[in-house]
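sry for the spam today, last one i promise. struct tokens for design, 206 residues
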């Protein structure tokens, strides 16, 4: 079994107490914000079943979200909207959301473990490839970000644009979503830069 505390343990032993795991969700969506979370867990805490949010059922994620929020020393959330994503590109938007998440932490982290990214803050950090599957802190952040964004999709965003099925597909390019886009056109919350390649023959729509 993967040791999900190997990175944390290394930096705890090096003298860093408050280590924040950082991850994002919604990077590949056609609709809505990209959402990032930063989570600082207590030193030595082991959270059973915490793993990459994509490997967990929605019900399991919700349960683990509550546990993480209860146990964490600090949690920060950041988000960047579709208009800004179109303006600065998804990579820069992701980094901005991650920076916001770090800045929202109530306790200053001493070290950052980030899922395959860099964050523009003067804090020592490590970019971890597949971090959400190899670090408990990053996995916890992935769960918090995913549940946060899913709740927006199922609540506020779906209520705003009920014809698009946002609650069902969460803004990803499913068949239903593409069909509704062709029938109705994009909303102000759709990422126009993502759709030009999706509908090559229907470019006049966008």
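last one done:
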């Amino acid at each position: 079994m993967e040791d999900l505390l190997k990175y944390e343990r290394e930096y705890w032993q090096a003298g860093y107490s408050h280590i924040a795991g950082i991850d994002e969700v919604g990077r590949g969506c056609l609709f809505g914000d990209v959402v990032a979370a930063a989570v600082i867990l207590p030193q030595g805490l082991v959270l059973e079943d915490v793993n990459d949010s994509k490997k967990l059922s929605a019900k399991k994620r919700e349960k683990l979200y509550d546990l993480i929020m209860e146990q964490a020393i600090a949690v920060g959330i950041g988000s960047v909207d579709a208009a800004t994503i179109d303006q600065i590109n998804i990579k820069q938007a992701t980094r901005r959301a991650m920076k916001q998440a770090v800045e929202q932490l109530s306790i200053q982290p001493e070290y950052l473990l980030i899922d395959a990214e860099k964050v523009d803050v003067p804090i020592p950090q490590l970019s971890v490839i597949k971090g959400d599957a190899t670090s408990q802190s990053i996995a916890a952040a992935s769960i918090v970000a995913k549940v946060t964004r899913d709740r927006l999709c199922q609540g506020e965003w779906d209520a705003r644009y009920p014809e698009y099925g946002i609650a069902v597909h969460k803004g990803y390019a499913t068949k239903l979503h593409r069909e509704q886009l062709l029938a109705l056109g994009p909303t102000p919350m759709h990422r126009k830069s993502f759709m030009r390649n999706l509908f090559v023959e229907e470019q006049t729509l966008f």
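The first strand starts at residue 19 and ends at 25. ok im logging off now
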